[in-house]
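Let's sit down with a protein and look at its sequence and fold side by side. Please make up or recall a protein chain and show it to me in full. Label the sequence line and the structure token line clearly, so we can match residues to local backbone shapes. Go ahead whenever you are ready, and we will take it from there.
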Amino acid sequence: MTIHISATTGCNLGCTYCYENPDRERKQEWVDRQYDMDKIIEQLDKHKEKYPNEAPGLHGGEPLLLKNEDIRTLFSEMESRWPDQSYHIQSNGTLIDDEIIDIFEDYSVGVGISCDGPPELNSERKAAGERDKDAGDSTNNMSQTTNKSIRRIAESDVYCGVITVLHKTNAGTDEKFETLLDWIDELNQLGVYGHFNPAIPYEDVQEDISLSPNTLADRYIRTWEWMKEESYRMWNPMRNMVDNLLGLTLTNCVNTECDVFNAGAAKIIKGDGGTTGCGKTWSTVGDGVPFLQGIENESEYDKEDARYRSLKQTPGKYTDDEPDMGGCKGCKYWQVCKGGCPSSGKNDDYRNRTIWCDPKYKLYQRIENDLRSLLPNIKLITDYEWDMEISEGVSRQNLDIKPFGAMRNPTSGPSSSFQEHARSPDTDHIAKSFDMIRKDAEKKYDESVLTINEEEETIHADSGMVEWDEVDK
């Protein structure tokens, strides 16, 4: 995905489902001592050299706990190294004021707000002092502030998106979920879009408020049906899943390969200048403490794909004549799921497929059926063999499966979406241009780390990040 500057793990909230508690809840004076601007900027230089086209953003904890002048300095340093790009920040929205919005506008910062609905549904995102108590006035006031911030940003020149965690409090009953959809409808009409993340059960450290797989599947499918009622409605992962099936790309990070020990989905620069990966990996294989990953040691981002090679070969729910051993062998949606995020592996084992396998499968199935009902001759990823080596190209947007090819004028006969044209899974229909892949590599990596063999059509990036070998036209 991109580079995240997580200068502090401190936060002014104490969300009950947070995978980094209690590290998130810290006082302001602790936050001020946690980060060193000089060391962060030094690390930016290293990342610019290695990832010249991956513009960073600010994450946390809560990044707006940093001093305003330091926030401005960081975006200024990003702009000097990654000019003419958009930057981002992920915040709980409780600390946004006029000065902060001015910074966002000055540096073209896209803002992601974490919010689980209107105040009555957002009560699991508690004020830090109320985390172990019933939600009180402080939590309610902060929830109101967050909702006001979303609308405030939407009315400015700043892009705003929303991450909503699904759990029992905002989606546990039909009534609550209807209220949540009404809230999302209001956001969509403001031009604000976002996506769902299901709460992960961490039963050993906090109360489990996650939805059951059956309930989550129902909420996913109801959201898809709700989206179809109005053309302006859009939410993820539903919209992502349409693109995934069409072969346009593989998004979001739970649909790409991520190894817990070198997670490239989030290349994190810490406040002390060190590097690590996605915080969910800490809780998955450690004790909640960030461990060294990335360019500071041999655990380079995206260096390994052992989990995915194993999942592909391990029997699972959709494997014929073999017992389910937690894998994905034979699943028709393998190319667009890849087993899911390791932090939600079955039986708390990151090597297994996600506990949300059924909801994802059922939603993909519903979307696929709808697409084929409207456009019977459409070509989707699922028209190819489940284990065909095409996902690498899809994830980098270098592969065109020509999903609408059967609806174009043939050399003879009528053309119609309902005309019976063959949907051959022949790989000749895949337009995988070496020139396109080369341009993408040249854009993403500095010329000094690339070795390009035009005759053999191979590309190698010495960074250790990417290696394309024997790329067919």
Summary: The chain has three domains: 2-204, 237-257+305-429, 433-473. The longest strand covers residues 160-166. Residues 464-473 have pLDDT under 50 and may be disordered. The domain at 2-204 is CATH 3.20.20.70 (TIM Barrel).
